[in-house]
Design brief:
Elements: E1 6-11, E2 14-19, H1 30-45, E3 51-56, E4 61-63, H2 68-72, H3 76-94, E5 100-104, E6 107-109, H4 111-117, E7 121-125, E8 129-131, H5 145-153, H6 155-164, E9 168-169, H7 170-175, E10 181-183, H8 188-200, H9 204-217, H10 222-237, H11 240-250
Parallel strand pairs: 2-3, 3-5, 4-6, 5-7, 6-8, 7-10
Antiparallel strand pairs: 1-2, 8-9
Bound molecules: acetoacetyl-coenzyme A (CAA).
Length: 262
């Protein structure tokens, strides 16, 4: 399928997905969501992809939220379905078997912050702006933001941001623990690709297992989380990558992971 509202590029096992409606600051409408849904399926099915990066086309925005033009024409029930659609697609993004990085290159407001929060971690340009300003539109976040933000930065900080609708800059998002790293605007993609490349060079089975264990354990109690980890540890021990990684250490050489899912 060819896409109009997103761009999907794949190079050396790293996929980069651009939200691509720069004239509307990459706002999320129904058409974009349908394409994103399909692109995520493609990424999951293509086992040569080891890391997914999400970013915004143009120089101004990651994503400026749900498309307010489309939103303003929806009935309450259509709005409910739209919110559910966004929630399901961001849940699919969050549950992808490979690591995901949000490269936030500008405004990440409303649905934009919610998309970034569904990634495994966020690198931000010093020009990035985060926020859940829906309250200023008489709405609340509807793509999982009330839940993911509170889990990441704590309930009280999330309440302050959501109740006031105020935006925060990259350095404050870093202080809140929402963002892992703030980069100069020019070096953002270079830094993201460096980290993505490092992850992509590791054993594929281990990388996927680590993602799955953290994802499934995050909302479980510690004992259940450790059981999930224990099963996955056994699975990684059975992988060719584990044999190669441990042999390489003992033979004092660099591991040459084949990246087979065996
Ligand atoms: N939906 C639709 N169009 C949008 C948009 C959005 N979320 N955000 C920006 N645009 C459009 C603008 O209407 C404008 O279009 P025109 O050129 O045709 O007028 C174009 O993008 C450029 O935007 P601005 O002229 O406003 O640019 P700016 O630099 O002055 O301001 C901004 C940038 C602060 C991000 C501002 O555009 C803004 O506040 N946008 C809305 C942010 C927002 O409220 N997001 C939450 C959406 S609701 C949501 O996400 C709900 C949910 O969780 C389910």
């Amino acid at each position: 399928m060819s896409f109009e509202n997103i761009i999907l590029e794949i190079n050396d096992g790293i996929a980069t997905l651009f939200f691509n409606r720069p004239k509307a600051l990459n706002a999320l409408n129904n058409a974009l969501f349908d394409e994103l849904d399909q692109a995520l399926d493609q990424v999951e099915e293509n086992t040569s992809i080891r890391v997914l990066i999400l970013t915004g086309a143009g120089d101004k925005a990651f994503v400026a939220g749900a498309d307010i033009v489309e939103l303003s024409r929806m009935s309450p029930l259509q709005g409910k379905y739209f919110s559910r659609k966004g929630q399901k697609i961001f849940a699919k993004l969050e549950a992808l078997p490979i690591p995901t990085i949000a490269a936030v290159n500008g405004y990440a407001l409303g649905g934009g912050s919610e998309a970034a929060l569904a990634c495994d971690f966020i690198y931000a340009s010093e020009k990035a702006v985060f926020g859940l300003p829906e309250i200023s539109l008489g709405l609340i976040p509807g793509f999982g933001g009330t839940q993911r933000l509170a889990r990441l930065v704590g309930k009280n900080r999330a309440k302050e941001l959501i109740f006031t609708g105020q935006n925060i800059k990259a350095d404050q998002a870093l202080e809140y623990g929402m963002v892992n790293r703030v980069c100069s605007h020019e070096s953002l993609m270079e830094e993201v690709l460096k980290t993505a490349g490092m992850m992509a060079s590791r054993g594929k089975v281990a990388l996927r297992s680590a993602k799955e264990v953290i994802h499934h354990g995050a909302n479980a109690d510690l004992e259940t989380g450790c059981r999930i980890e224990n099963d996955a540890f056994g699975l990684t021990m059975a992988s060719e990558d584990a044999e190669e990684g441990t042999s390489a250490f003992l033979e004092k050489r660099k591991p040459a992971f084949k990246g087979e899912l065996k």
